[in-house]
C-alpha cells in the first residue's frame, strides 16, 4: 500500500495549491515527511489528517501563528475552542450567501419577465410589499426612511426592491402618464418592518406590459400606456386602482452616458 506522496499528489487529493503547501512548509506549519534519493520531498499518509485539519482551520480564518500554537498542544481543547468560536461567523456567512442567492434569483426572474418583450398580459400578481410616500411633498421618501427600514429588516429588504412610481386611476384615464402619485420601493420579498410607509399589496388581477425607455423625460413610455389603455377598453376591463411603474433594470451605454431603462407596468383591473 502506498505510504508516500509527492506535493503534486497531495495538492490534488486536498484541492489545495502546491504554492500553499510550500508556504506551510516554509513557515514550519507542516513539512514533508522525508526527502527521497531523487531529491523529491514526500508527505506521508500519516500526515493527511493534520493537513486536512490545517486546511479547515485556515478556511475558517485561523491565522498561522495561532495554528502553530493550537496544533502543538497536548490535548484537543485548543482546536475544539477555535472551531466553536467560528461557528457563529460561519452561520452568518451562510445566511449572507442564502440572501445573495435569493437576490440573484429574484433579479434574474424579473429580467426574464421584463426585458425581452412588450406583450400585454393579464395576470394575477404575487403579493407585493410597497414602501412609498406621496410624490412631490416635503416628506417624500428619503434616505432616513430607507435606512430605518434597512435596520428593521437587518439590511436586506431594500436590496431586493426596485424603485417605483404610481399613477392614479384618474390620470391614467385622462392619458396623463407623468403626474405621479407616489414614489418608493417594491418587492415580492417580504418586508418585516413596522414603517407607516409600508403596505402589503395582496395578489390581484393586473394588465401588465413591459417598457424599454431611452429618453430621459420618459415620454417614450407613453405609447406603452396607450397600448395598455386600449387593451383595457377593448377587452372589457375596468381600472380599480393605481398603476405601478416598476424600474427593473438600468443599463449604461457608452461614453455619452446614455441609459436604457427597463420597466414593468402594472394596472389593476376587474372584468366587467
Counting H and I runs of at least 4 residues, what is the number of helices?
Answer: 9
Structural class determined from secondary elements: alpha+beta
Radius of gyration: 29 Å
Order of helices and strands: EHHEEHHHEEHHEHEEEHEEE
Give the proportion of residues in helices.
25-40%
Residue-averaged pLDDT: 90
Kindly estimate the percentage of residues that lie in beta strands according to DSSP: 25-35%
Shape: elongated
Alpha-carbon distance between the termini? 82 Å
Q: Report the biggest beta sheet as strand number plus sense, adding barrel if it closes.
A: 9 strands, antiparallel
Low confidence ranges: none
DSSP strand tally: 12
Explain how this protein is built.
- There is one protein chain.
- The protein has 272 residues and is of the alpha+beta class.
- The chain contains 9 helices and 12 strands.
- Strands 4, 5, 6, 7, 8, 9, 10, 11 and 12 form a 9-stranded antiparallel β-sheet that branches. It has a 3-stranded antiparallel β-sheet with strand order 1-3-2.
- The protein is elongated.
- The model has no long low-confidence stretch (mean pLDDT 90).
Key descriptive features of the protein:
alpha+beta, 9-stranded antiparallel sheet, single chain, 3-stranded antiparallel sheet
